[in-house]
Specification:
Blueprint (H helix, E strand, L loop, with lengths): L12 H4 L4 E2 L5 E4 L2 E7 L5 E6 L2 H17 L10 H11 L10 H19 L9 H13 L4 H20 L30 H10 L3 H13 L3 H6 L5 E2 L4 E4 L2 E2 L3 E2 L8 E4 L2 H13 L20 H14 L9 H12 L4 H8 L4 H8 L11 H8 L14
Antiparallel strand pairs: 1-2, 2-3, 3-4, 5-6, 6-9, 7-8
Length: 394
């Protein structure tokens, strides 16, 4: 919490009428059990700030004196977290050149309303310190929230305080650099994310329709996000050139792709293009604006009916953990195993950062994916065949 305390409260008015007592430190005074730093702001107006101990008061005095001398002093705003966050999220425009999605705005709004607003409540923005942010995160970790959930709760708080610092509502962003607590529940990295060939074969055997088998094979071959596949229209399929154009996603309604790099053209094999052609013809050559993958009633596929159709087959195939995003992990891993470069995999999956592709979507196994033993023989000088042992008869 901030070292500064309210200078005057109704219950303390009688005590506040007592004179300030000098201490051994110039500019630091004491009244009862509270210390006060008396200083002049850049306009020459005398101001006071309180502290709980003499050590805090000395540190506060040094900080305020330095701020005034450097021209960095700002009068602290009295706006509270509760009064500020709703107006901020309504007008937030993002902090990068990529802008800010309305879907992300709603995610931020829910995170602030569910987690941050109840914790910070009537606390003044200017009084929030890094220690307060850490306490907020530790409280979430103590309730069993995962590191990912905590990270999502911290993101809008960090962005809001960054904007407040730029607008000089606060002196600095108290959330900048604060880390997720080590006690937060971490994702289980021991569970494989990429599906094995055997798992894929079992899954195909459990799927009940050719349409569902095509959908799974399409996701594995293209690496499209499920949201991108559900948003795919026939206008984005070029059967003659064996290309699929990603230009939308289905996420709380049809929307633009997740990022600029997600807008991409993905290659498919002639065999996959042929299967898409058969699907198109079986539907009676639908119009270009119609979806490629549909539900049993002919509507665009969505998460609800996708889960009803694919999830039971995954469980029946012995795939107990993970979700549809595992198909995308499988794509990245298998492409690497078959000689694709990281740059090619990055383009295929539509990632902005090459390191992210390697770190998150390529899952190699030291035993199965290690170097060719013949190469190791060359390194070790074992290039000649071992001598033939002759058995000498007695």
């Amino acid at each position: 919490m901030s070292v500064a305390q309210p200078i005057q409260a109704p219950a303390d008015r009688k005590r506040d009428r007592r004179r300030l007592e000098k201490t051994s430190t110039p500019g630091v005074y004491k009244r009862g059990g509270i210390y006060f730093v008396v200083y002049a702001d850049p306009s020459g107006r005398q101001r006071k700030k309180s502290a709980r101990t003499i050590a805090e008061a000395r540190s506060l005095k040094a900080s305020l004196t330095t701020d005034v001398r450097r021209g960095e002093w700002r009068q602290q705003s009295t706006v509270t977290f509760a009064d500020h966050w709703q107006g901020w999220i309504d007008g937030y425009a993002g902090r990068t050149a990529r802008g800010f999605r309305e879907n992300t705005r709603e995610d931020y709004r829910r995170a602030l309303e569910q987690f941050a607003a109840p914790f910070f409540g009537r606390m003044k923005l200017a009084a929030i310190e890094p220690a307060d942010i850490k306490q907020f995160l530790l409280k979430m970790a103590g309730k069993g929230y995962s590191a990912g959930t905590i990270r999502n709760a911290l993101a809008p708080v960090r962005a809001m305080l960054a904007d407040a610092a730029e607008d000089r509502i606060v002196r600095f962003n108290a959330a900048a650099g604060v880390r997720i607590p080590a006690s937060a529940k971490q994702a289980d990295t021991t569970k494989a994310k990429a599906l094995t060939s055997a798992e894929l074969e079992r899954l195909r055997a459990k799927l009940t329709t050719d349409h569902d088998r095509l959908l799974v094979d399409f996701l594995v071959a293209t690496g499209l996000r499920v949201s991108e596949a559900m948003a795919l229209n026939w206008s984005g399929v070029d059967i003659a050139r064996c290309r699929v154009k990603v230009e939308a996603r289905l996420y709380r309604g049809l929307d633009a792709p997740k990022s600029q790099t997600s807008r991409r053209v993905v290659k498919v094999s002639p065999a996959m293009a042929g299967r898409l052609r058969l699907l198109w013809e079986s539907r009676g050559t639908p119009a270009l604006h119609e979806p490629v993958f549909v539900s049993p009633d002919g509507c665009r596929l969505d998460y609800s009916n996708l889960h009803k159709r694919i999830a039971p087959a995954m469980r029946a195939a012995g795939i107990e953990h993970g979700a549809f995003h595992r198909f995308r992990h499988t794509t990245g891993t298998e492409l690497k195993r078959h000689g694709a470069s990281l740059e090619q995999i990055q383009l295929h999956l539509g990632h902005h950062d090459l390191a992210f592709t390697q770190r998150v979507y390529v899952h190699l196994d030291a035993e199965e994916d290690g170097p060719d033993p013949a190469v190791l023989d060359d390194l070790a000088g074992c290039t000649q065949a071992p001598p033939v042992l002759r058995v000498v008869e007695a």
